[in-house]
Amino acid sequence: MFSDKQKPRSMSEIGGQPNRIEKNTKIKGDIVSEADFRIDGKLDGNVKTSGKVVIGKDGYIHGKVECVNADIEGSFNGELLVSDLLSLKSSAIIEGTVSVSKLAVEPGATFNASCTMKGKGLGTNSGGFKSSVGGKNEPAKAS
Question: Which of 6, 36, 86, 133 is 20 to 30 A (C-alpha) from 106?
Answer without folding.
Answer: 36
